[in-house]
Amino acid sequence: MADPPPLELGHQFRDPALLERALTHSSFVNEAPGQAQSNEVLEYLGDAVLDMIVAEVLVTTMPEAEEGTLTRLRASMVAEASLGQVAAGIGLGAHLRLGRGEDSQGGRERPSLLADALEAVIGAAYQDGGLDAARCVVLRLFGPRLAEAANASLDPKSRLQEVVQARRHVTPSYRLVRSWGPDHDRFFEVVCLIGEDIVGTGVGRTKKEAATAAATSAMEGEGAGEDGGEGEGS
């Protein structure tokens, strides 16, 4: 069998033995006692390091997000299914050192085993080069997922602003058009404008709530034109 292509981790190990250990499953050690160490301790370390770095990135990229939102996003990012997908995406399974039984039973494709090994690799990078090295690995492997999660969690006004500025190079604005009802039960209607064009309308019990609804309405229109609206004039 040909050697698998090298892992693209974003870190060059000064001590290759650390990476080898990170890729060594306990089943391999059980079949060759005394000849190798399993990746379990590195997995434990990598789990903690990954949690910290993901939390750091989320707080940096989403400074206005609430704690509950950040906690939910971090949990989804470091869940077994997510880790397994990232590990499979870089071909980690082909590099694992498995016992013959584990290998014959499909261990190289097992999400739980891949997730554990990926955490061990992060732990190994931390031991090899400190927090900066581990951060490079996490950003290399999880960067697109982290950016996507942060973008999806933006409030409708921020998401709309990103989309409109990217496509039209202008910033949406909001205008209160009317309000009604007694002070204790008041409603507001706000329109969202791009230039002078009204692209969304929203109603709410506060001006902020109405503006958010208007942005949501405008986003639906922007999304509907995503595939073809921009290309006509290019």
Question: Could you describe the 3D structure shown?
Answer:
This protein has 234 residues and is mainly α. Helices cover 57% and strands 10% of the residues. It has helices spanning 16-22, 26-31, 40-61, 67-77, 80-89, 100-104, 111-152, 156-168, 207-224, and strands spanning 173-180, 187-194, 197-204. Strand 1 and strand 2 (187-194) form a beta hairpin. Helix 3 packs parallel to helix 7.
Concise description?
The chain is built from 9 helices and 3 strands, in the order H-H-H-H-H-H-H-H-E-E-E-H.
Low-pLDDT runs of 5+ residues are: 224-234
CATH fold assignment of the largest domain: Ribonuclease iii, N-terminal Endonuclease Domain, Chain A
Question: Would you count the extended β strands for me?
Answer: 3
Largest sheet: 3 strands, antiparallel
Provide the gyration radius in Å.
25 Å
Structural class: mainly alpha
Number of domains: 2
CATH class of the largest domain, named Mainly Alpha
CATH architecture of the largest domain: Orthogonal Bundle
Strands side by side in the biggest sheet:
1-2-3
The H-level CATH homologous superfamily of the largest domain, spelled out, is Ribonuclease III domain
